[in-house]
Amino acid sequence: MAPLSARIGPSILNADLSQLHEESEKLLANGADYLHLDVMDGTFVPNLTFGHPVVKCLRNKIKDAFFETHMMVQHPQQWIEPMADAGVQQYTFHIEPVLDSVADVCRKVRESGMKVGLALKPGTAVEAVQQYIDSADMVLVMTVEPGFGGQKFMADMMPKVQWLREHYPALDIEVDGGVGPATIEQCSKAGANMIVAGTAIIRADDQAAVIRDLRSAVQSAINHGGQC
Ligand SMILES: O=C(CO)[C@@H](O)[C@H](O)COP(=O)(O)O
Ligand SMILES: [Co+2]
């Protein structure tokens, strides 16, 4: 099994979406390890973004970056094939709307050739993913209520990250929401190795420096056993 690595995936939610391609290229040139694409359907969350046609256009322009879609949608089953066809590598979906069919959704995502991410809203107990860990490649612990960028980081989500790291030392664990230079230490010490940051990177004067600093905080926690 590959050792854990620190990866930084900027969220483009608060970028200038009329310049999606240019903003994405800039993030990648500044050192982003992957792109975190927030898909919202206006039902699961009270906001609306974009879907597979936009992701496909972006893929046509950017051939080699790793795309993760964060599916904040009521019917994650519905978008598996379209997102795979659009060139997405990881399909991270919320378990809350599909609690009775999580295993089935995981299986379909894997059959489509994408990696599986299981996302948890702040109010969802972390133990809810336990029975699906073998079917998943990553767990996303939301550190804000999903739906909007620029919210305040919820430090009280860190015990969930710690619990996952203690139980699954090799699991990829992602945090998303209000993460940036001021909150990265909590995330990295708790055990997160995949870091989504929107506002903190998009609004930075020096994106490359922020990305580099976030990654080095996480990598150093991994290297020095700082993770629980
Ligand atoms: O999924 C979401 C919000 O629902 C996130 O990906 C945010 O868009 C990240 O933005 P910041 O909180 O880092 O500004
Ligand atoms: Co997100």
From TrEMBL:
<dbReference type="GO" id="GO:0006098">
    <property type="term" value="P:pentose-phosphate shunt"/>
</dbReference>
<feature type="binding site">
    <location>
        <position position="70"/>
    </location>
    <ligand>
        <name>a divalent metal cation</name>
    </ligand>
</feature>
<dbReference type="Pfam" id="PF00834">
    <property type="entry name" value="Ribul_P_3_epim"/>
</dbReference>
<protein>
    <recommendedName>
        <fullName>Ribulose-phosphate 3-epimerase</fullName>
        <ecNumber>5.1.3.1</ecNumber>
    </recommendedName>
</protein>
<comment type="pathway">
    <text>Carbohydrate degradation; pentose phosphate pathway; D-xylulose 5-phosphate from D-ribulose 5-phosphate (non-oxidative stage): step 1/1.</text>
</comment>
<keyword id="KW-0862">Zinc</keyword>
<dbReference type="InterPro" id="IPR000056">
    <property type="entry name" value="Ribul_P_3_epim-like"/>
</dbReference>
<keyword id="KW-0119">Carbohydrate metabolism</keyword>
<dbReference type="GO" id="GO:0005975">
    <property type="term" value="P:carbohydrate metabolic process"/>
</dbReference>
<feature type="binding site">
    <location>
        <position position="178"/>
    </location>
    <ligand>
        <name>substrate</name>
    </ligand>
</feature>
<feature type="binding site">
    <location>
        <position position="70"/>
    </location>
    <ligand>
        <name>substrate</name>
    </ligand>
</feature>
<dbReference type="InterPro" id="IPR011060">
    <property type="entry name" value="RibuloseP-bd_barrel"/>
</dbReference>
<dbReference type="InterPro" id="IPR026019">
    <property type="entry name" value="Ribul_P_3_epim"/>
</dbReference>
<dbReference type="InterPro" id="IPR013785">
    <property type="entry name" value="Aldolase_TIM"/>
</dbReference>
<feature type="binding site">
    <location>
        <position position="38"/>
    </location>
    <ligand>
        <name>a divalent metal cation</name>
    </ligand>
</feature>
<dbReference type="GO" id="GO:0046872">
    <property type="term" value="F:metal ion binding"/>
</dbReference>
<feature type="binding site">
    <location>
        <position position="11"/>
    </location>
    <ligand>
        <name>substrate</name>
    </ligand>
</feature>
<keyword id="KW-0170">Cobalt</keyword>
<dbReference type="GO" id="GO:0004750">
    <property type="term" value="F:D-ribulose-phosphate 3-epimerase activity"/>
</dbReference>
<feature type="active site" description="Proton acceptor">
    <location>
        <position position="38"/>
    </location>
</feature>
<feature type="binding site">
    <location>
        <begin position="147"/>
        <end position="150"/>
    </location>
    <ligand>
        <name>substrate</name>
    </ligand>
</feature>
<feature type="binding site">
    <location>
        <position position="176"/>
    </location>
    <ligand>
        <name>a divalent metal cation</name>
    </ligand>
</feature>
<keyword id="KW-0479">Metal-binding</keyword>
<feature type="binding site">
    <location>
        <begin position="198"/>
        <end position="199"/>
    </location>
    <ligand>
        <name>substrate</name>
    </ligand>
</feature>
<keyword id="KW-0464">Manganese</keyword>
<keyword id="KW-0413">Isomerase</keyword>
<feature type="binding site">
    <location>
        <position position="36"/>
    </location>
    <ligand>
        <name>a divalent metal cation</name>
    </ligand>
</feature>
<feature type="active site" description="Proton donor">
    <location>
        <position position="176"/>
    </location>
</feature>
<comment type="similarity">
    <text>Belongs to the ribulose-phosphate 3-epimerase family.</text>
</comment>
